[in-house]
């Protein structure tokens, strides 16, 4: 894995690199502005050359880029000090006449007295070579290079520390060897950059979080290098002296470099090995301490209490040490019935112990005795917490108990069939619930003996079909034989298990006794068949629709009524069965019922339907609703009213004929009185005309003649009015509902009845309600009712004294836009036995053969046809009282 320092280490490394960059900038600004204090830091000390300061600046910037996770930029920046170091190292090896251009720079001419003024010294060259290599090595993918990276960085650190030491202890820094002489700014920057590199490396190592095993080959290579490297500087120095290009400065550089590498390599290897071994032991100690281990003496006194024990039990080490382990934890052995484990051969046992908070835990304790010579005997208690396992086992037992109770409550049987042995294991009580003795179905052969042969063959077919396909699940249904007759019916499913060759070896499943359900289904099918037969024989058509108006069922009677086959209408909307102009109103009524539940159920609706050939017919509908599976089903019974409407029409015509006959009969009975009534105006007319003729013959004035002619004309008009009312009453006409005056209608009827009864000494009392002025009715029919009631009253009043003969007619405004009209006489009243059937046909109030008994029946039908009610009762003051209601109309309404 690559180098990846932590955030904190990156921050520290960046800070050190920035400090080195600042020192570089200060030194360069000193050369730029001619301020020696800025490129010396300490007056009188060796200056740092511009090129050296610039190289340190690039080096610090490269380290900063590397800490910022910008490796490409870091490699580019680190290449600059590397090239400067290589050039400074190779310059002494070239002839004096050749110059790389690194010895002098602007502003250092005055320091030309220094040897190689402007050229990096030995310390700087070593730093420029080793520090970039250390930064690049720590990012390598090879573990060896990552391990060598701090070694490479430690060499510049040792050299910087040595330079700083010489600067501090030397009385005259100018007397130092020019090769080893270092400037204060350079030493400060070298220390800062080296610390940044090493700090980042240490953070990265700590981040790895693991200890690698020692590599023997790597150790051998390091030891060999540590032995060989000290001899290499002398050999190289000897070779350089013998060569033609020997140079003391270069030899010093090589000698110092290789000595530092050798010393650093040995030091690093030793420190690295020690740190690794210490880390390994620390990790092992932490791992062991996290285990749940207790060390006691043979008496149980606690001598060691691990961190794992603290986490498990809650007791701190200082609280547990010196305590008896079993007393502290209140250890007890579980009873064998409740034990979830058994002692092992090595002495392990299950214990129930208590934590500090009082909660119980289950543990397995394994004891090991150690009796080292010269030391007291100790007992090591290895503890394994099995509380979760115990909880899981308890939950499993509880689940098994619940399953057993659930199967028993549902009468579900669990079976396990082993094909090899032919044994069948059943859940407890299953055979008894089937009415069999325990063990009656314990083998495959005994089970076959209790199954119906045809069902056994069906089961065999199911198994033979499942085995070749290696089906995991099969479903089945079979019936048992009991006492030679069919017993219980079972249904279930099973899981099949096969061996490697595909042979069925085991079947585990569940069965349910569905005998009662089968019986209910048979009864239900029987009732459905019976209901279907009833519906098919009912003469009324039946249609079933859902909440969307879609036809689901169409009975045989409906097919006959509409002329459609059921297949032609099922699945279509019910509006296809009504005329086009009535589809929208019917759909509106249906929608309102679906949304509000009103307007359809419990009502008898009359409408028009249309057959397949386009014929329309009147129909009566009755509907009922039921919910099934969250869907509403509406059953509608339809009856064809064609024949009933025709019969009602014929009956209406017959009733009109009877009413006409009744009116004619009434007029026949009144003929004598009418003749007497008409005789008076006609006689008066004759007398007036005779008197007028006599006056004319005498030659008298025309004014008296005119008066006589006018009075004769009035008498003639009176007779004509009587005849007009008679003709209108008797005439057979169509019903005409109009707005009529209550008072005018009543008075015309009274005048018609009282014709010729002037000698009868009859008084009529009117009591009109001013708020009840107009009715919506057929005037002739209402007058027929009034005439019938008044004639009955006149007939009844013949039985009382002349002074007591009185008829009272009242009108009264009622709620709901109705007007009540009451006709009361002062006669003897109606006998109770007649009052019970008063409005039946051929029931009369006159007794004997005085009437036909159809007047009141016709009157009742007329009033009900107007939307009113006709009733009769005996008045408490005496006499009979008839009351009927008619729809009222406000004045001004049409």
Q: Short summary of the structure?
A:
The chain is α+β, with helices and mostly antiparallel strands and 894 residues long.
Protein architecture, described:
It is a single chain. The two termini are 106 Å apart. The protein is an alpha+beta fold. It has 7 domains: 7-209; 211-284; 293-393, 2-Layer Sandwich (Beta-Lactamase); 410-520, PAS domain (Beta-Lactamase), CATH 3.30.450.20; 538-640, 2-Layer Sandwich (Beta-Lactamase), CATH 3.30.450; 641-733; 738-894, Heat Shock Protein 90. Helices cover 51% and strands 18% of the residues.
Keywords:
894 residues; alpha+beta; Beta-Lactamase; 7 domains; seven-stranded mixed β-sheet; five-stranded antiparallel β-sheet; elongated; disordered N terminus
N/C terminus separation: 106 Å
Helix amount: 40-55%
Largest sheet: number of strands, sense, barrel closure: 7 strands, mixed
Q: Radius of gyration from the CA trace?
A: 65 Å
Query: Which residue ranges are poorly predicted, with pLDDT under 50 across at least 5 consecutive positions?
Result: 1-5, 97-107, 202-214, 242-246, 336-345, 848-852
Number of domain modules: 7
Total count of strands: 22
Shape: elongated
The whole-number mean of residue pLDDT values reads: 77
Total helical elements = 28
Structural class: alpha+beta
What is the beta-strand fraction? 15-25%
């Amino acid at each position: 894995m690559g180098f990846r320092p932590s955030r904190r280490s990156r921050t520290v490394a960046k800070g050190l690199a920035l400090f080195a960059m600042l020192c570089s900038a200060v030194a360069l600004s000193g050369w730029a502005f001619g301020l020696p204090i800025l490129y010396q830091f300490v007056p009188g000390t060796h200056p740092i050359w511009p090129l050296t300061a610039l190289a340190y600046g690039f080096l610090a910037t490269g380290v900063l880029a590397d800490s910022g996770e910008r490796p490409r930029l870091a490699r580019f920046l680190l290449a600059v000090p590397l090239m400067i170091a290589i050039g400074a190292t190779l310059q002494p090896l070239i002839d004096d006449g050749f110059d790389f251009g690194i010895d002098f720079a602007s502003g250092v001419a005055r320091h030309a007295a220094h040897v190689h003024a402007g050229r990096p010294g030995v310390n700087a060259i070593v730093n420029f070579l080793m520090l970039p290599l250390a930064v690049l090595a720590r990012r390598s993918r090879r573990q060896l290079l990552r391990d060598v990276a701090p070694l490479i960085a430690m060499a510049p650190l040792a050299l910087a520390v040595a330079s700083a030491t010489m600067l501090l202890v030397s009385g005259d820094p100018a007397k130092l060897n020019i090769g080893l002489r270092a400037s204060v700014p350079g030493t400060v920057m070298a220390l800062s950059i080296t610390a940044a590199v090493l700090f980042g490396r240490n953070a990265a190592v700590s981040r790895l979080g693991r200890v690698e095993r020692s590599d023997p080959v790597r150790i051998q290579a390091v030891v060999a290098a540590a032995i060989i490297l000290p001899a290499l500087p002398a050999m190289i120095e000897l070779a350089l002296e013998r060569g033609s290009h020997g140079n003391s400065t270069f030899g010093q550089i090589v000698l110092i470099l290789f000595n530092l590498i050798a010393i650093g390599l040995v030091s690093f290897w030793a420190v690295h090995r020690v740190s690794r071994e210490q880390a390994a032991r620390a990790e092992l100690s932490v791992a062991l301490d996290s285990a749940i281990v207790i060390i006691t003496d043979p008496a149980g006194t606690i001598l060691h209490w691990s961190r794992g024990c603290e986490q498990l039990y809650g007791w701190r080490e200082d609280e547990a040490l010196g305590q008896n382990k079993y007393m502290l934890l209140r250890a007890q052995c579980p009873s064998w019935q409740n034990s979830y484990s058994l002692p092992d051969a090595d002495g392990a046992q299950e214990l129930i112990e208590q934590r500090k908070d009082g909660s119980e835990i289950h543990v397995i304790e394994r004891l090991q005795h150690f009796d080292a010579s010269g030391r007291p005997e100790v007992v090591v208690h290895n503890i394994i917490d099995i509380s979760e396992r115990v909880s899981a086992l308890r939950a499993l037992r509880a689940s098994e108990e619940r399953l057993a109770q659930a199967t028993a409550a549902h009468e579900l049987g669990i079976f396990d069939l082993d094909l090899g042995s032919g044994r069948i294991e059943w859940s407890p009580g299953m055979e008894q619930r089937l009415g069999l003795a325990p063990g009656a179905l314990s083998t495959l052969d005994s089970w076959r003996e209790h199954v119906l042969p045809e069902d056994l063959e069906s089961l065999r077919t199911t198994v033979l079909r499942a085995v070749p396909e290696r089906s995991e699940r099969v479903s089945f249904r079979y019936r048992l034989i009991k006492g030679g007759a069919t017993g219980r019916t079972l249904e279930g499913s099973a899981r099949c298990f096969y061996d490697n060759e595909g042979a069925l070896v085991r079947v585990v499943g569940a069965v349910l006794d569905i005998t009662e359900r089968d019986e209910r289904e048979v009864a239900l099918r029987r009732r459905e068949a019976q209901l279907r037969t009833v519906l098919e024989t009912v003469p009324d058509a039946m249609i079933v629709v859902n909440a969307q108006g879609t036809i689901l069922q169409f009975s045989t009677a409906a097919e006959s009524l509409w002329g459609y086959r059921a297949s032609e209408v099922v699945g279509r909307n019910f509006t296809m069965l009504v005329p086009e102009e009535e589809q929208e109103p019917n759909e509106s009524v249906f929608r309102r019922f679906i949304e509000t539940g009103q307007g359809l159920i419990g009502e008898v609706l009359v409408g028009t339907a249309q057959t397949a050939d386009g014929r329309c017919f009147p129909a009566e509908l009755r509907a009922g609703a039921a919910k099934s599976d969250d869907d509403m089903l509406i059953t509608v019974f339809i009856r064809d009213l064609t024949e009933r409407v025709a019969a009602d029409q014929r009956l209406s015509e017959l009733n009109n004929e009877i009413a006409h006959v009744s009116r004619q009969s009434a007029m026949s009975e009144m003929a004598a009185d009418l003749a007497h009534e008409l005789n008076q105006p006609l006689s008066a007319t004759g007398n007036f005309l005779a008197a007028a003729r006599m006056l004319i013959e005498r030659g008298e004035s025309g004014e008296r003649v005119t008066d006589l002619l006018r009075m004769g004309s009035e008498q003639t008009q009176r007779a004509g009015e009587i005849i007009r009312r008679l003709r209108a009453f008797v005439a057979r006409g169509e019903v005409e509902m109009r707005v009529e005056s209550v008072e005018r209608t009543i008075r015309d009827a009274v005048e018609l009845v009282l014709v010729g009864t002037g000698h009868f000494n009859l008084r009529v009392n009117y009591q009109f309600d001013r708020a009840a002025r107009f009715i919506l009715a057929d005037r002739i029919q209402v007058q027929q009712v009034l005439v019938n009631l008044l004639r009955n009253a006149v007939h009844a009043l013949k039985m009382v004294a002349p002074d007591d003969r009185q008829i009272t007619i009242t009108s009264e405004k009622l709620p709901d836009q109705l007007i009540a009209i009451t006709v009361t006489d002062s006669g003897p009243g109606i006998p109770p036995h007649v009052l019970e059937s008063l409005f039946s046909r051929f029931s009369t109030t006159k007794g004997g053969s005085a009437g036909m008994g159809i007047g009141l029946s016709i009157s009742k039908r007329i009033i009900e046809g107007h939307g009113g009610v006709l009733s009769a009762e005996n008045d408490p003051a005496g006499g009979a009282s008839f009351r009927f209601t008619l729809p009222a109309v406000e004045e001004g309404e049409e």
